[in-house]
Input
Amino acid sequence: MSEAMTSEALPSKQDKQISSLGGIFIITGTSIGAGMFSLPVLTSNMWFGWAALFLAVSWYCMYSSALYLLEANQKFKHGVNFDTMTKTLLSPSLRVINGLSVLFVSYILVYAYISGGGSMLGHSLQSGLGINLSQSVSSFIFAVLLGLIVSFSTRAVDRFTSAMLGGMVITFSIAIFGLLNNAQFSQLQPFAEMSDRLQYSWAAIPALMVCFGFHSNIPSLVKYYQKDSKKVVNSIRYGSLLAIAIYLVWLLASFTAIGRDGFAAVIDAGGNMGALVAAMESADSGPTLAVMLQLFANFAVATSFLGVALGLFDFLTDLLKMDNSIAGRSKIALLTFIPPMIGGVLFPNGFIYAIGYAGFAAAVFALFTPVALAYQARKKMPESRFIVPGGNLRMLAVIIFAVCVVVFQILSMLGLVA
Output
Protein backbone atom coordinates (compact mmCIF):
# COMPACT_ATOMS: atom_id res chain seq x y z
CA MET A 1 0.00 0.00 0.00
CA SER A 2 1.93 3.06 -1.21
CA GLU A 3 1.34 6.64 -0.17
CA ALA A 4 1.66 9.25 -2.92
CA MET A 5 3.99 12.18 -2.52
CA THR A 6 3.69 15.02 -4.97
CA SER A 7 7.32 16.03 -4.61
CA GLU A 8 10.39 15.55 -2.48
CA ALA A 9 10.09 15.86 1.28
CA LEU A 10 10.77 19.29 2.68
CA PRO A 11 14.41 20.08 3.32
CA SER A 12 15.45 19.22 6.81
CA LYS A 13 18.10 20.76 9.02
CA GLN A 14 18.13 17.74 11.29
CA ASP A 15 20.92 15.23 11.45
CA LYS A 16 20.49 12.89 8.47
CA GLN A 17 21.60 9.98 10.66
CA ILE A 18 18.23 10.01 12.42
CA SER A 19 16.30 7.23 10.67
CA SER A 20 12.66 6.18 10.74
CA LEU A 21 13.52 3.33 13.11
CA GLY A 22 12.97 5.40 16.24
CA GLY A 23 9.59 6.58 14.92
CA ILE A 24 8.61 3.00 14.05
CA PHE A 25 9.42 1.96 17.60
CA ILE A 26 7.40 4.84 19.06
CA ILE A 27 4.35 3.97 16.91
CA THR A 28 4.58 0.25 17.68
CA GLY A 29 5.28 0.81 21.35
CA THR A 30 2.39 3.23 21.72
CA SER A 31 0.03 0.79 20.01
CA ILE A 32 0.88 -2.54 21.56
CA GLY A 33 0.77 -1.48 25.18
CA ALA A 34 -2.88 -0.54 24.76
CA GLY A 35 -4.07 -3.53 22.79
CA MET A 36 -1.74 -6.22 23.97
CA PHE A 37 -3.26 -7.04 27.32
CA SER A 38 -6.81 -5.78 26.82
CA LEU A 39 -7.24 -7.42 23.40
CA PRO A 40 -7.50 -11.11 24.44
CA VAL A 41 -9.91 -10.29 27.26
CA LEU A 42 -12.12 -8.02 25.16
CA THR A 43 -12.25 -10.41 22.19
CA SER A 44 -12.59 -13.65 24.15
CA ASN A 45 -16.32 -13.84 23.33
CA MET A 46 -15.82 -13.31 19.58
CA TRP A 47 -12.76 -15.63 19.44
CA PHE A 48 -10.03 -15.72 16.82
CA GLY A 49 -11.76 -15.49 13.42
CA TRP A 50 -13.89 -12.39 14.00
CA ALA A 51 -11.15 -10.83 16.14
CA ALA A 52 -8.63 -11.05 13.28
CA LEU A 53 -11.08 -9.66 10.72
CA PHE A 54 -12.20 -6.69 12.81
CA LEU A 55 -8.62 -6.01 13.86
CA ALA A 56 -7.60 -5.71 10.19
CA VAL A 57 -10.47 -3.31 9.44
CA SER A 58 -9.53 -1.20 12.46
CA TRP A 59 -5.90 -1.09 11.36
CA TYR A 60 -6.73 0.13 7.86
CA CYS A 61 -9.04 2.91 9.03
CA MET A 62 -6.70 4.10 11.78
CA TYR A 63 -3.69 3.93 9.45
CA SER A 64 -5.56 6.01 6.88
CA SER A 65 -6.66 8.61 9.41
CA ALA A 66 -3.08 8.93 10.67
CA LEU A 67 -1.96 9.74 7.13
CA TYR A 68 -4.70 12.40 6.85
CA LEU A 69 -3.42 13.95 10.04
CA LEU A 70 0.11 13.96 8.65
CA GLU A 71 -1.11 15.58 5.41
CA ALA A 72 -2.67 18.46 7.33
CA ASN A 73 0.22 18.76 9.78
CA GLN A 74 2.74 19.10 6.94
CA LYS A 75 1.19 22.43 5.96
CA PHE A 76 2.19 24.02 9.27
CA LYS A 77 5.56 24.74 10.81
CA HIS A 78 6.95 21.81 12.77
CA GLY A 79 6.01 21.81 16.44
CA VAL A 80 2.36 22.66 15.72
CA ASN A 81 -0.10 20.30 17.41
CA PHE A 82 -3.84 19.53 17.23
CA ASP A 83 -5.01 22.77 18.81
CA THR A 84 -3.29 25.08 16.31
CA MET A 85 -4.39 22.99 13.32
CA THR A 86 -8.03 22.85 14.41
CA LYS A 87 -7.99 26.58 15.24
CA THR A 88 -6.77 27.37 11.73
CA LEU A 89 -8.83 24.92 9.68
CA LEU A 90 -12.00 24.14 11.66
CA SER A 91 -14.77 26.10 13.35
CA PRO A 92 -14.39 27.19 17.01
CA SER A 93 -16.96 24.64 18.21
CA LEU A 94 -15.20 21.77 16.42
CA ARG A 95 -11.91 22.97 17.84
CA VAL A 96 -13.30 22.78 21.38
CA ILE A 97 -14.83 19.33 20.80
CA ASN A 98 -11.57 18.01 19.35
CA GLY A 99 -9.49 19.49 22.15
CA LEU A 100 -11.70 17.94 24.80
CA SER A 101 -11.59 14.54 23.07
CA VAL A 102 -7.77 14.65 22.80
CA LEU A 103 -7.45 15.51 26.47
CA PHE A 104 -10.00 12.90 27.55
CA VAL A 105 -8.49 10.06 25.52
CA SER A 106 -4.89 10.95 26.36
CA TYR A 107 -5.56 11.26 30.06
CA ILE A 108 -7.67 8.11 30.26
CA LEU A 109 -5.05 6.08 28.36
CA VAL A 110 -2.24 7.40 30.56
CA TYR A 111 -4.43 6.38 33.51
CA ALA A 112 -5.05 2.95 31.93
CA TYR A 113 -1.32 2.38 31.55
CA ILE A 114 -0.66 3.50 35.10
CA SER A 115 -3.29 0.99 36.20
CA GLY A 116 -1.87 -1.78 33.99
CA GLY A 117 1.74 -0.89 34.77
CA GLY A 118 1.04 -0.85 38.49
CA SER A 119 -0.68 -4.23 38.21
CA MET A 120 2.31 -5.74 36.40
CA LEU A 121 4.89 -4.12 38.67
CA GLY A 122 3.09 -5.44 41.73
CA HIS A 123 2.71 -8.92 40.22
CA SER A 124 6.40 -9.03 39.21
CA LEU A 125 7.67 -7.88 42.60
CA GLN A 126 5.47 -10.35 44.42
CA SER A 127 6.26 -13.39 42.26
CA GLY A 128 9.94 -12.59 41.73
CA LEU A 129 11.09 -11.04 44.99
CA GLY A 130 8.29 -11.78 47.42
CA ILE A 131 7.64 -8.04 47.86
CA ASN A 132 3.99 -7.23 48.41
CA LEU A 133 2.93 -3.74 47.40
CA SER A 134 -0.60 -2.46 47.11
CA GLN A 135 -1.56 -1.68 43.55
CA SER A 136 -2.00 1.97 44.47
CA VAL A 137 1.62 2.19 45.58
CA SER A 138 2.99 0.26 42.62
CA SER A 139 0.94 2.46 40.23
CA PHE A 140 2.41 5.58 41.82
CA ILE A 141 5.98 4.27 41.50
CA PHE A 142 5.42 3.28 37.86
CA ALA A 143 4.03 6.71 36.95
CA VAL A 144 6.79 8.70 38.66
CA LEU A 145 9.68 6.74 37.15
CA LEU A 146 8.45 6.85 33.54
CA GLY A 147 7.00 10.35 33.82
CA LEU A 148 10.50 11.68 34.39
CA ILE A 149 11.62 10.27 31.03
CA VAL A 150 8.78 11.97 29.12
CA SER A 151 9.47 15.25 30.90
CA PHE A 152 13.09 15.20 29.77
CA SER A 153 12.78 15.15 25.95
CA THR A 154 11.38 13.40 22.87
CA ARG A 155 14.83 11.97 22.14
CA ALA A 156 14.90 10.42 25.62
CA VAL A 157 11.58 8.71 24.86
CA ASP A 158 12.95 7.57 21.48
CA ARG A 159 16.10 6.06 22.99
CA PHE A 160 14.36 4.49 25.97
CA THR A 161 11.50 3.11 23.85
CA SER A 162 13.94 1.70 21.30
CA ALA A 163 15.87 -0.09 24.02
CA MET A 164 12.73 -1.51 25.64
CA LEU A 165 11.26 -2.56 22.31
CA GLY A 166 14.44 -4.54 21.68
CA GLY A 167 13.86 -6.26 25.00
CA MET A 168 10.23 -6.79 24.05
CA VAL A 169 11.19 -8.58 20.84
CA ILE A 170 13.40 -11.01 22.73
CA THR A 171 11.04 -11.67 25.64
CA PHE A 172 7.99 -11.81 23.37
CA SER A 173 9.64 -14.37 21.09
CA ILE A 174 10.64 -16.60 24.01
CA ALA A 175 7.26 -16.27 25.72
CA ILE A 176 5.31 -16.97 22.53
CA PHE A 177 7.46 -20.01 21.80
CA GLY A 178 6.77 -21.30 25.30
CA LEU A 179 3.03 -20.65 25.05
CA LEU A 180 2.62 -22.16 21.58
CA ASN A 181 4.84 -25.14 22.44
CA ASN A 182 2.42 -26.10 25.20
CA ALA A 183 -0.75 -24.79 23.59
CA GLN A 184 -3.84 -26.82 22.94
CA PHE A 185 -4.75 -25.79 19.42
CA SER A 186 -8.11 -27.49 19.77
CA GLN A 187 -9.00 -24.40 21.81
CA LEU A 188 -9.17 -22.46 18.53
CA GLN A 189 -12.09 -24.57 17.33
CA PRO A 190 -15.20 -22.39 17.29
CA PHE A 191 -17.25 -22.70 20.45
CA ALA A 192 -20.21 -21.49 18.37
CA GLU A 193 -20.97 -20.85 14.73
CA MET A 194 -19.47 -17.72 13.18
CA SER A 195 -22.93 -16.19 12.78
CA ASP A 196 -23.65 -16.78 16.47
CA ARG A 197 -20.37 -15.18 17.55
CA LEU A 198 -20.87 -12.10 15.38
CA GLN A 199 -23.13 -10.56 18.02
CA TYR A 200 -20.18 -10.45 20.41
CA SER A 201 -18.06 -8.49 17.93
CA TRP A 202 -19.84 -5.14 17.96
CA ALA A 203 -19.03 -4.14 21.53
CA ALA A 204 -15.32 -4.83 20.94
CA ILE A 205 -14.97 -2.47 17.96
CA PRO A 206 -14.20 0.68 20.01
CA ALA A 207 -11.48 -1.18 21.91
CA LEU A 208 -10.00 -2.59 18.69
CA MET A 209 -9.70 0.96 17.39
CA VAL A 210 -7.72 1.92 20.49
CA CYS A 211 -5.23 -0.85 19.62
CA PHE A 212 -3.90 1.63 17.02
CA GLY A 213 -4.24 4.76 19.11
CA PHE A 214 -0.93 6.37 18.16
CA HIS A 215 -2.36 9.53 16.54
CA SER A 216 -1.28 11.88 19.29
CA ASN A 217 2.29 10.99 18.32
CA ILE A 218 2.00 12.20 14.71
CA PRO A 219 2.59 15.91 15.47
CA SER A 220 5.44 14.89 17.78
CA LEU A 221 7.06 12.86 14.96
CA VAL A 222 6.55 15.68 12.45
CA LYS A 223 8.36 17.93 14.91
CA TYR A 224 11.05 15.34 15.64
CA TYR A 225 11.79 14.68 11.95
CA GLN A 226 11.34 18.36 11.04
CA LYS A 227 8.62 17.70 8.46
CA ASP A 228 10.46 14.92 6.64
CA SER A 229 7.22 13.30 5.47
CA LYS A 230 8.86 10.15 4.11
CA LYS A 231 10.26 9.25 7.52
CA VAL A 232 6.96 9.96 9.26
CA VAL A 233 5.03 7.84 6.71
CA ASN A 234 7.50 4.98 7.17
CA SER A 235 7.09 5.26 10.93
CA ILE A 236 3.29 5.09 10.65
CA ARG A 237 3.16 2.32 8.06
CA TYR A 238 5.75 -0.08 9.42
CA GLY A 239 5.08 0.71 13.06
CA SER A 240 1.36 -0.08 12.71
CA LEU A 241 1.99 -3.18 10.55
CA LEU A 242 4.40 -4.50 13.16
CA ALA A 243 1.75 -3.87 15.80
CA ILE A 244 -0.99 -5.83 14.00
CA ALA A 245 1.38 -8.73 13.31
CA ILE A 246 2.22 -8.90 17.01
CA TYR A 247 -1.48 -8.72 17.93
CA LEU A 248 -2.40 -11.68 15.74
CA VAL A 249 0.36 -13.88 17.11
CA TRP A 250 -0.54 -12.79 20.63
CA LEU A 251 -4.21 -13.68 20.14
CA LEU A 252 -3.25 -17.08 18.75
CA ALA A 253 -0.98 -17.79 21.72
CA SER A 254 -3.32 -16.49 24.42
CA PHE A 255 -6.45 -18.18 23.10
CA THR A 256 -4.75 -21.56 22.72
CA ALA A 257 -2.99 -21.33 26.08
CA ILE A 258 -5.81 -20.08 28.30
CA GLY A 259 -8.98 -21.33 26.64
CA ARG A 260 -12.56 -20.19 27.15
CA ASP A 261 -12.83 -21.24 30.80
CA GLY A 262 -9.55 -19.57 31.64
CA PHE A 263 -10.72 -16.24 30.23
CA ALA A 264 -13.86 -16.40 32.34
CA ALA A 265 -11.63 -16.57 35.42
CA VAL A 266 -9.49 -13.66 34.19
CA ILE A 267 -12.57 -11.51 33.68
CA ASP A 268 -13.89 -12.45 37.13
CA ALA A 269 -10.54 -11.29 38.59
CA GLY A 270 -10.98 -7.83 37.06
CA GLY A 271 -9.32 -8.40 33.69
CA ASN A 272 -6.20 -6.40 34.55
CA MET A 273 -2.75 -7.20 33.17
CA GLY A 274 -1.58 -9.09 36.24
CA ALA A 275 -4.57 -11.45 36.11
CA LEU A 276 -4.04 -12.20 32.41
CA VAL A 277 -0.31 -12.86 32.83
CA ALA A 278 -0.97 -15.10 35.83
CA ALA A 279 -3.40 -17.18 33.73
CA MET A 280 -0.78 -17.51 30.98
CA GLU A 281 1.88 -18.52 33.48
CA SER A 282 -0.35 -21.37 34.61
CA ALA A 283 -0.18 -22.83 31.09
CA ASP A 284 3.41 -23.90 31.79
CA SER A 285 5.04 -24.88 35.07
CA GLY A 286 8.52 -23.77 34.03
CA PRO A 287 10.01 -20.58 35.50
CA THR A 288 11.36 -19.32 32.16
CA LEU A 289 7.90 -18.63 30.71
CA ALA A 290 6.82 -16.75 33.81
CA VAL A 291 9.90 -14.54 33.76
CA MET A 292 9.65 -13.82 30.03
CA LEU A 293 5.94 -12.99 30.27
CA GLN A 294 6.52 -10.61 33.14
CA LEU A 295 9.42 -8.87 31.41
CA PHE A 296 7.48 -8.60 28.19
CA ALA A 297 4.39 -7.22 29.94
CA ASN A 298 6.43 -4.61 31.79
CA PHE A 299 8.24 -3.55 28.60
CA ALA A 300 4.96 -3.35 26.67
CA VAL A 301 3.05 -1.18 29.11
CA ALA A 302 6.07 1.06 29.65
CA THR A 303 6.57 1.78 25.94
CA SER A 304 2.88 2.50 25.49
CA PHE A 305 2.82 4.80 28.50
CA LEU A 306 5.79 6.72 27.14
CA GLY A 307 4.27 7.15 23.68
CA VAL A 308 0.84 8.35 24.82
CA ALA A 309 2.26 10.54 27.59
CA LEU A 310 4.63 12.16 25.07
CA GLY A 311 1.71 13.02 22.79
CA LEU A 312 -0.25 14.51 25.71
CA PHE A 313 2.82 16.43 26.89
CA ASP A 314 3.34 18.02 23.45
CA PHE A 315 -0.39 18.75 23.04
CA LEU A 316 -0.49 20.64 26.34
CA THR A 317 2.71 22.48 25.42
CA ASP A 318 1.13 23.69 22.17
CA LEU A 319 -2.25 24.44 23.81
CA LEU A 320 -0.74 26.52 26.60
CA LYS A 321 2.08 27.96 24.45
CA MET A 322 4.76 26.92 26.94
CA ASP A 323 8.44 27.31 26.11
CA ASN A 324 11.01 24.51 26.23
CA SER A 325 12.71 25.79 29.38
CA ILE A 326 13.07 23.69 32.53
CA ALA A 327 10.34 25.74 34.21
CA GLY A 328 8.01 25.36 31.22
CA ARG A 329 8.54 21.60 30.90
CA SER A 330 8.11 21.15 34.65
CA LYS A 331 4.71 22.87 34.60
CA ILE A 332 3.56 20.76 31.65
CA ALA A 333 4.84 17.62 33.37
CA LEU A 334 2.70 18.33 36.43
CA LEU A 335 -0.38 18.92 34.24
CA THR A 336 0.34 15.75 32.27
CA PHE A 337 0.89 13.30 35.10
CA ILE A 338 -0.83 14.47 38.28
CA PRO A 339 -4.47 13.83 37.18
CA PRO A 340 -3.93 10.23 35.90
CA MET A 341 -1.66 9.47 38.88
CA ILE A 342 -4.47 10.43 41.25
CA GLY A 343 -6.79 8.14 39.29
CA GLY A 344 -4.25 5.32 39.38
CA VAL A 345 -3.92 5.57 43.15
CA LEU A 346 -7.65 5.92 43.91
CA PHE A 347 -8.97 3.51 41.25
CA PRO A 348 -6.12 1.06 40.54
CA ASN A 349 -8.13 -1.59 38.64
CA GLY A 350 -9.74 0.45 35.88
CA PHE A 351 -7.57 -0.81 33.02
CA ILE A 352 -10.20 -2.64 30.93
CA TYR A 353 -12.94 -0.06 31.52
CA ALA A 354 -10.62 2.82 30.60
CA ILE A 355 -9.65 1.20 27.29
CA GLY A 356 -13.32 0.86 26.32
CA TYR A 357 -14.24 4.45 27.14
CA ALA A 358 -11.14 5.73 25.36
CA GLY A 359 -12.44 4.30 22.08
CA PHE A 360 -15.61 6.38 22.33
CA ALA A 361 -13.83 9.74 22.48
CA ALA A 362 -10.89 8.65 20.32
CA ALA A 363 -13.29 8.37 17.38
CA VAL A 364 -13.40 12.18 17.36
CA PHE A 365 -9.73 13.14 17.29
CA ALA A 366 -8.35 9.94 15.72
CA LEU A 367 -10.94 9.48 12.96
CA PHE A 368 -13.31 12.44 12.41
CA THR A 369 -10.78 15.23 13.00
CA PRO A 370 -7.94 13.97 10.74
CA VAL A 371 -10.37 13.58 7.82
CA ALA A 372 -11.86 17.04 8.47
CA LEU A 373 -8.41 18.63 8.74
CA ALA A 374 -7.14 17.05 5.52
CA TYR A 375 -10.36 17.95 3.67
CA GLN A 376 -10.24 21.59 4.78
CA ALA A 377 -6.50 21.83 4.23
CA ARG A 378 -6.91 20.74 0.61
CA LYS A 379 -9.38 23.61 0.11
CA LYS A 380 -7.78 26.36 2.18
CA MET A 381 -4.09 25.43 1.82
CA PRO A 382 -3.88 23.65 -1.55
CA GLU A 383 -0.08 23.70 -1.83
CA SER A 384 1.01 20.30 -0.55
CA ARG A 385 4.06 18.07 -0.72
CA PHE A 386 2.25 15.06 0.70
CA ILE A 387 -1.23 13.86 -0.31
CA VAL A 388 -2.97 10.69 0.86
CA PRO A 389 -4.30 8.71 -2.13
CA GLY A 390 -7.81 7.30 -2.35
CA GLY A 391 -9.82 10.49 -2.83
CA ASN A 392 -13.16 11.03 -1.12
CA LEU A 393 -13.96 7.29 -1.07
CA ARG A 394 -11.16 6.56 1.37
CA MET A 395 -12.23 9.50 3.52
CA LEU A 396 -15.82 8.19 3.52
CA ALA A 397 -14.68 4.74 4.64
CA VAL A 398 -12.89 6.25 7.64
CA ILE A 399 -15.95 8.34 8.56
CA ILE A 400 -18.27 5.31 8.36
CA PHE A 401 -15.94 3.38 10.64
CA ALA A 402 -15.89 6.32 13.08
CA VAL A 403 -19.70 6.39 13.19
CA CYS A 404 -19.73 2.63 13.89
CA VAL A 405 -17.30 3.09 16.79
CA VAL A 406 -19.49 5.75 18.40
CA VAL A 407 -22.76 3.87 17.84
CA PHE A 408 -21.50 0.53 19.16
CA GLN A 409 -19.90 2.12 22.23
CA ILE A 410 -23.20 3.84 23.07
CA LEU A 411 -25.11 0.58 22.57
CA SER A 412 -22.57 -1.20 24.77
CA MET A 413 -22.94 1.39 27.51
CA LEU A 414 -26.72 0.91 27.34
CA GLY A 415 -26.30 -2.87 27.55
CA LEU A 416 -27.83 -3.44 24.12
CA VAL A 417 -24.83 -5.28 22.67
CA ALA A 418 -22.67 -7.87 24.40
About this structure: The chain is about 75% helix and 0% strand. The mean pLDDT is 79.
